[in-house]
Amino acid sequence: MERVISIPKPTLERLPLYYRRLLQWREEKVSIVSSADIGKNLGIDSAQVRRDLTYFGAVGRPGIGYKVEELISYLGELLGINNVNEAIIVGVGNLGRAICSYPGFAPYGLSIVAFFDIDPQIVGTKIRGHEVFHVNDLIHIVKRLKIQIGIITVPAREAQKVADQMVAGGIRAIWNFAPTRLHVPEEVIIRSEDLAVGLATLSHYLVREDLSERAEGLDRGISGS
Amino acid sequence: MERVISIPKPTLERLPLYYRRLLQWREEKVSIVSSADIGKNLGIDSAQVRRDLTYFGAVGRPGIGYKVEELISYLGELLGINNVNEAIIVGVGNLGRAICSYPGFAPYGLSIVAFFDIDPQIVGTKIRGHEVFHVNDLIHIVKRLKIQIGIITVPAREAQKVADQMVAGGIRAIWNFAPTRLHVPEEVIIRSEDLAVGLATLSHYLVREDLSERAEGLDRGISGS
DNA sequence: TAGTATTCGTGATAATTTTCACAAATGCTA
DNA sequence: TAGCATTTGTGAAAATTATCACGAATACTA
To answer: Which domains does chain A have, with CATH numbers?
Structure first.
C-alpha cells in the first residue's frame, strides 16, 4: 500500500543496539565484523542482522563482513546523530535529572539546552550549569531557540498541559515519560516511555515462571540468558 | 511447537495500558466498558482489544461490554500485582531515585525494600526512610529477605558485577537500566530498559519527517496523533 | 590457477500479530 | 413477544516480522 519502503519498527528498535556495540568495537580497534559476530554479541539471528543492515543501506563484502567505521557512519546518519539534536526538558525532578545525566545518550548527540519546572523552589536554580526556567517561558524560549525535541518528565496530570505548550512553541517531537496518553496534532511525533510496562512484564513472567514456556526476545523484552 | 498457549509479547506490553486506564475508570465510577471504549481511549483497534482480553481470560457480555472491576481483577492477577512484589535497587543516583519515586508504579504493588550503592558518600545515608547499604552486603540481605526482583541503575561497566551478585543472592528477575547486555543463568529473567532506543527512534523519525510515511504504533512506539 | 572456507544478499517459507467481518448473545422498547 | 441496536468472541484473511537455505562473491592457500 505504501510505495515508500519504511524500516520495520522492530528493526528500528534494534538499531541503537547495533550502534552501541559498533562504537565499542571501534574503541577496541576492530575494523571489520561479520553479521554472525554482531548476532552472537547481541543475541540476534545473523540473518536478521543482515536483513536489518540492508534496510540501513549498509553493504558488506561476502567472505569478509562489514566495515565497522562504515556501519557506524550509516547508522549515525539514520539516527540523525551526525547532526546534534537540541532538546528541552520539562520537569526537573529525579527523573528529569536522571535523563540529563544518563550516560547512554552520550553517543547520540542529544543536547539538552534548557530546563523548565513549575516549582518556585527549583526555578532559578542551576542544573549542570544551566538555569531552570519557569514553564511560562517555555513557548517563548522554544520558539527563539527553534528547539525540535521536548522531553516531558512531569507528573501525569501536568503532562498534557506541557505538551500543549511544547506544540505551541513549535516542537516537533515529544518524548514523554509521564504515564499518560498525550493528544497532539498529527504532525507531532510522540514516543512514550512507560516504565510500568517494563515492571508489569517482568512481574508477569515472574508469576509465570513455573511454566516452562518463556518468551525469547532480547534487550527490549524478556530473556532467559 | 509449544502446547502451552502463551500471551503474545505485544499483548503483554499493552496490558499495563489497559490496567492503568481501567483504574481511572473505576475512579470515575464507570462500571462497564466496551472494547470500543477501551480502544478509542488507547488508540488500539477494538478487535485487538477483544482478542487481548480473551488472552487475559476476561469474559464480556455481548451487547454490554466488560465489567471494569472484573477486568482489573483479572489483569491484576496476571500482573502478579495482587501480591506485593518486593525489590531491591542497586545504584542510588538520580535514575535510581527517580525509579523509587516514579508514580506510575503505585498501582503495581512494587515495593522497594532495600537500597544499595558503592559510593561511601551515599552508603549509610537514608532514602525515603531506608538506609542505603553497601553493595558488599547485597548477597546477604537479598538471601535473608528472599527478594525476587533486582533493579540495576548503576553505570554500564558495573552492571554485570551487580547482576552476578544478585544472581548469587537468589534473585530471579532483573530489571536493567544500564545500557549494556547482561549475562545471567537461563532461569533468571532479564528486562533491559534502554533509554537510548527511545531517543534513537524519536530522532530517526524526526530526520524522516519530510517523508509522508510514518509508523503508527501507540504508547510504546511512535505516533502522529 | 584450482580448491577451500567464509560470508553476504535475498527469495522463499514460517511464525507471529493485526484486522476484518459476521454469527450469536444481550438488553431495550413497545 | 418481536424487532432493533449493541457488543462480544472468533474463524479467516491480511500484514508484518523472523528464519531458512542457498547461490554468488571474496580471500586465502598451495
So the answer is: 9-77 (1.10.10.10), 85-193 (3.40.50.720)
